[in-house]
Specification:
single chain, about 280 residues, mainly alpha, MetI-like fold, 11 helices
C-alpha cells in the first residue's frame, strides 16, 4: 500500500492508470457492446464519425464499424503486449540471473548468445519469425518475446553482479544456502522492482511492433487489430483519413499510458529517486 500511495501522488502516473484502465475496459466489454463480428458490414462504406448514431466513429471502406474494430483491437493489442512481455521477462530473468550470479564461463556463454540476438534488428527478426512460422497471434507473441528478452537479460545481469557482492548474499553462502535458493529467494526479490518497470516498456514496445507487423499484412487474418485497421485505411488517406487516425490515436494513448505508468513505478520503487525528489 505504501508504494501505491507513493505512485498515485504522481499525477502523470494517475493519468496513465486511467488511460490504461479505459483500454482494458474496452477489451473486456467488446463482446458485450458489439456482440456481432467486427468484420461484418453494418452501414454505408466511408461514413464519417458522427454522421450516423448507429456508427458513432464511422465506417471503413467496407462498411465495418470503426468503434467495433477499436474495441476488439484493444483485446489483441493487450494480449500480445502482456503475453510477449511475460515470456520475454521470464527468459531474460533466467538468463540474466545465472549469468550475473555465476560469472566466468557461464556469463561469457550466455552473454554471447544474448549478443547474437541483439545484433539482428529487432523488427526484422520478429518479421522473419512470423513469415517462417505463419501469421497467428501465438506466433506474433513468440516472435516479439524472442526479440525482447535480451534487454531484460542484460538489465538483470547487471543487477545480479551488484547484488552478489552484498553482505547478505555472503551470509547466505556461509550458512550453506544453495545457489538456486540464493538466486530466487534472496537476490531476485530485490531486482523485481526494476523488472516491473522494464516490463511496462516491453508491453508498449510489443503493442507498437504488433501493429507494425499487422500493418504490413503479416498479422493474424482471423483477428482485427489496430495495425490491420491502419493498413486497410491507407488507401483512403486523402478522403477518409479518420480510418487511420482513430486506431492511430488509440495506439498513441495506449503506449503513452504504459510509459507514464512505468515512469510512475520507477519513481515509487526507486529509493534514490524518492530521496532526490524529497530534497
Amino acid at each position: 500500500m505504501r508504494y501505491v500511495r507513493l505512485a498515485l501522488r504522481n499525477w502523470t502516473m494517475a493519468l496513465g492508470i486511467l488511460l490504461l484502465a479505459a483500454v482494458v475496459m474496452m477489451a473486456l466489454t467488446a463482446h458485450l457492446i458489439f456482440p456481432g463480428d467486427p468484420y461484418e458490414m453494418v452501414g454505408v462504406p466511408l461514413t464519417w464519425p458522427g454522421q450516423e448514431p448507429e456508427t458513432l466513429l464511422g465506417t471503413d471502406s467496407l462498411g465495418r464499424d470503426m468503434a467495433a474494430g477499436l474495441f476488439y483491437g484493444a483485446r489483441v493489442s493487450l494480449l500480445v503486449g502482456f503475453c510477449s512481455a511475460f515470456v520475454a521477462a521470464t527468459v531474460g530473468v533466467l538468463v540474466g540471473a545465472f549469468a550475473g550470479y555465476y560469472g566466468g564461463w557461464t556469463d561469457d556463454v550466455l552473454m554471447r548468445i544474448t549478443e547474437l540476438f541483439q545484433t539482428t534488428p529487432q523488427f526484422m527478426l520478429a518479421l522473419a519469425v512470423v513469415a517462417v512460422l505463419g501469421p497467428s497471434v501465438t506466433v506474433i507473441i513468440l516472435s516479439l518475446a524472442v526479440v525482447s528478452w535480451p534487454t531484460v537479460a542484460r538489465l538483470v545481469r547487471g543487477e545480479f553482479i551488484v547484488m552478489r557482492d552484498r553482505a547478505f548474499v555472503h551470509s547466505c553462502v556461509v550458512t550453506g544456502m544453495g545457489d538456486l535458493r540464493i538466486i530466487f529467494a534472496q537476490i531476485l526479490p530485490n531486482v523485481v522492482p526494476v523488472i516491473i518497470v522494464m516490463s511496462t516498456i516491453l508491453v508498449a514496445t510489443a503493442i507498437l511492433m504488433e501493429s507494425a507487423i499487422s500493418f504490413l499484412g503479416f498479422g493474424d487474418p482471423n483477428v482485427l487489430t489496430w495495425g490491420t485497421m491502419i493498413g486497410m485505411g491507407r488507401g483512403q488517406l486523402r478522403d477518409a483519413w479518420y480510418i487511420i487516425a482513430i486506431p492511430g490515436v488509440a495506439l498513441l494513448l495506449t503506449a503513452l499510458a504504459l510509459n507514464l505508468v512505468g515512469e510512475g513505478l520507477n519513481d515509487a520503487l526507486n529509493p534514490r529517486l524518492r530521496q532526490m525528489k524529497g530534497r
